[in-house]
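$ run holo --ligand "beta-D-glucopyranose" --emit tokens
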Amino acid sequence: MKKFLSAVLFSSLALTFVACSESTPTDTSNLVGVSMPTQDLQRWNQDGNNMKLALEEAGYDVDLQFAANDIATQLSQIENMIASGVQTLVIASIDGSSLGTVMEQAKANGIEVIAYDRLIMGTDALSYYATFDNWKVGVTQGEYIVNELDLANTKDTYTIEFITGDPGDNNINFYFDGAMSVLQPYLDNGTLECLSEQTEKDEVATVNWASDAAQARFENILASYYSDEDLDIVLASNDSTAMGVANALASSYNGEYPVLTGQDCDIVAVQNLIAGKQAMSIFKDTRTLADQTVKMVDALMKGGEAMVNDTSTYDNGTGIIPSYLCEPVIATIDNYKELLIDTGYYTEEEVQP
Ligand code: BGC
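-- output --
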């Protein structure tokens, strides 16, 4: 038995060794590290895999890691990438302010770092930022609500509740503030009314953008404030929080269904769009962002400078970070087919509710 066990152990160690040595090329002059926050949400799987494919097509070796939404895991994965000789790092951070130590290590090793989708804060070791226009995402959600309910012309009052994402994700400042730049005047003049009075960013944040936390918060709000009143609007910054809200509406609400916003065009959100449970999402074609980032990596790996289209918006606390902003596009029941199906992003079967 012992012999058998040690043989199993030996062969699994040998396999591990083969697997490791296969994934770490001995020549690292072409090696790019890609650090993604989690595999829990559909979008990061797509982002990571799209980028890996595109980088490999451009001739690079790729070390792609997902950090299970755990800051310590992301730090150690990046440390390992640096130790294994990556030349450029692409990082979508879990918490934009917690990467100081590895950023210093990257800088000391002459490694260029690109912040992917989420800005990395408080470090001068960051070279570039590639993202969708985060402010525009929030503004588009706010404008959708204004147009849908004709808030500029109505004499009615509509109830609204808010939910955004992880407090450590710098993007929530742009999403929430962008949406509020459109909606605040209607709260001020009484056209919009938030019965829970939870309108501050820290009150409406959701740790890890988690659907179950969003659901729990909304079950509470619905039970406390909307048992006799209709909830007309929910501004949700993204699809994972919108999904939590949709679940809470299903379990704890009997009124007229609200206008519910989102972002990402996750499959479940598109299914909800078709089923009438979510009014809109924002399509951020991860293929576009991945391609753009690959162009940045390519320019840096060849010793050049990356192309940017924004040098005024994203200050990470040490100065403006040159950025490339991709265009977010609104998705509704009216255009999801041409945006998502005709372009091959999803098949019609995948998005059936
Ligand atoms: C991204 C969103 C995403 C959210 C949760 C944000 O930083 O910009 O697209 O929905 O994180 O993962």
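-- notes --
The longest strand covers residues 31-36.
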